[in-house]
Amino acid sequence: MRILAKSLVRNLQSQGYEVAILLSLITELIEAVTVEMQRATGRSPQPSGSPRAAHPHKR
Questions:
Q1: How far apart are CA 12 and CA 58, in angstroms?
Q2: Tell me: the pLDDT tens digits for 7-59?
Q3: Secondary structure of the chain in the HEC alphabet?
Q4: Are 52 and 58 within 8 A, CB to CB?
């Protein structure tokens, strides 16, 4: 996965995407995966910005 991530970042940077845009993309990806994990485990998704959304394993 590390190689894939590095390759993706390099590719997007070579296409002119700035670091701020990459961070925004990464944040959206993390949120999407978190929601999917919560659905898969039967937990209701938490609103963005909530402590459980940032750390879904903590109560």
A1: 33
A2: 999 999 999 999 999 999 999 999 999 999 999 999 876 666 655 545 444 43
A3: CHHHHHHHHHHHHHCCCCHHHHHHHHHHHHHHHHHHHHHHCCCCCCCCCCHHHHCCCCC
A4: yes
Structural domain tally of the chain? 1
End-to-end C-alpha distance for the chain, whole angstroms: 28
List the domain range (segments joined by +) for residue 22: 2-43
Tokens of 17: 């995407």
The answer to whether the Cα torsion of 24, 29, 35, 41 is positive or negative is negative
Q: What is the pTM of this model?
A: 0.61
For residue 23, tell me if it sits in a domain: yes
Whether 53 is in a domain gets the answer: no
